[in-house]
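dude i think i finally got it to work??
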Amino acid sequence: MNKPLRVLILEDSERDAEMIAAELDRAGIHSVSQRAESEEQFEHALREFTPDVIVCDHALPQFNSIAALKTIQAVRPTAPMIVVSGALDERTAVACLRAGAEDIVLKGNLQRLPSAIESAIRVRQRLERLTPRQIEVLRFIAEGHTNREIARRLELSAKTIESHRGEVMKRLDVHDIAGVVRYAVRVGLVTPEVEEI
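look at this
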């Protein structure tokens, strides 16, 4: 990458955040990072710091990775989130992945983080070709809405939605609706309902 990778670290431990940044440096990933440790700081950083990737501790007091994913989907859906945790039981890990986390890396195995980040960014590169309106349309398509329903919700004509739909498929290089849905689920734009943990 020519420009530094912007990494938002949602972590209440400054030491753990430094270990994450050090691991990226060790792997030769040119990055600039910012740490947030509360929901308010996190949402502000999503808007102002505009991260390329989010690394998130699962169990922050009063704000876990599932809640963070909901905020990401609302504010910066193109940014992947990787959960980094000291320990995670199977049920929690499944809930995080179903909610849209790209990957889970244990703090005891941080050397896996750089490859997880590179993989997450590669998957989302096509998403960056879309405008914010096209991302909205993509989300509605993946949720199963018809062109007419999407048009009504966005207060646009059905013809405009059809045009957006064609452009979304072209820019994502996807040739059918099943592929559109698979991609939207893969990048966390739509997720099944998950129970809070």
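The two ends are 36 Å apart (CA to CA).
im so relieved honestly
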